[in-house]
């Protein structure tokens, strides 16, 4: 799905290949707090959240420990705040992602759409972007499950059944309190966690 920019017809979106070329040429420094979203270089709000919302770092740490322990020995792994390549115009860096295969399978490339089982964003100041831009990106590339850890409203938003053509998910749930969330590990497998285990 090619991004459109109604505010200006003069904007030319960058492709993933062009973005990688800029990194390789040193035009952009490795590790810059930037994501490629809809062909635009977007500064991540993660750094600001860690300063003004310590809950962001806490939730990422808690989720990482829980997930790594839970999927030990399985045929998938957890990536933390690392890129996933979603051609042709996107390379977001979800806070966490459940990826098919071992980490060594990605020594020479980032995971692509077929590799990502679940993308997870921890959202404070980035909530609106995560609900709109990020949701459309993950849905349009067929990511089976997208989860937003909504720190503002103390709830978890779960999206499933992506409609790639429309860039949206056909199923959505909001979970809070003593509810449970089932994270996808494969087409038929899930891990169940209490919402209370994840939120601050």
Q: N-to-C terminal Cα separation, in Å?
A: 36 Å
> Approximately how much beta-strand content do the residues carry?
25-35%
Gross CATH architecture: Alpha-Beta Complex
CATH-derived topology: tt1808, chain A
For the record, the count of structural domains works out to 1
Structure description:
With 200 residues, this protein is an alpha+beta fold. It contains 5 helices and 10 strands, in the order H-E-E-H-H-E-E-E-H-E-E-E-E-E-H. The strands form 3 sheets. A 6-stranded mixed β-sheet has the order 3-4-5-6-7-8. Strands 1-2 form a two-stranded antiparallel sheet. A two-stranded antiparallel sheet has the order 9-10. Strand 9 and strand 10 form a beta hairpin. Helix 2 crosses helix 3. The protein is globular, with a radius of gyration of 16 Å. It starts with 15 loop residues before the first helix and ends with a helix.
Topology of helices and strands:
Elements: H1 16-24, E1 34-37, E2 40-43, H2 46-52, H3 54-70, E3 76-80, E4 96-100, E5 116-123, H4 127-140, E6 145-150, E7 155-163, E8 168-175, E9 180-184, E10 190-194, H5 195-198
Parallel strand pairs: 5-6
Antiparallel strand pairs: 1-2, 3-4, 4-5, 6-7, 7-8, 9-10
Helix pairs in contact: 2-3
């Amino acid at each position: 799905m090619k991004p459109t920019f109604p505010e200006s017809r003069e904007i030319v979106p960058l492709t993933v290949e062009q973005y990688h070329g800029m990194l390789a040429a040193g035009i952009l420094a490795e590790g810059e707090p930037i994501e490629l979203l809809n062909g635009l270089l977007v500064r991540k709000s993660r750094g600001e959240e860690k300063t003004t919302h310590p809950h962001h770092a806490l939730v990422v740490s808690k989720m990482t420990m829980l997930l790594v322990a839970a999927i030990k020995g399985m045929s998938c792994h957890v990536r933390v705040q690392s890129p996933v390549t979603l051609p042709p115009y996107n390379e977001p860096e979800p806070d966490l992602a459940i990826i098919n295969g071992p980490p060594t399978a990605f020594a020479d490339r980032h995971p692509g759409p077929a590799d990502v089982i679940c993308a997870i964003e921890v959202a404070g100041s980035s909530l609106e972007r995560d609900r709109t831009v990020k949701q459309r990106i993950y849905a349009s590339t067929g990511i089976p499950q997208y989860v937003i850890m909504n720190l503002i409203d103390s709830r978890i938003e779960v999206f499933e059944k992506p409609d790639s053509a429309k860039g949206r998910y056909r199923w959505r749930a909001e979970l809070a309190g003593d509810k449970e969330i089932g994270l996808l590990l494969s087409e038929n497998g899930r891990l169940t966690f209490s919402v209370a285990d994840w939120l601050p």
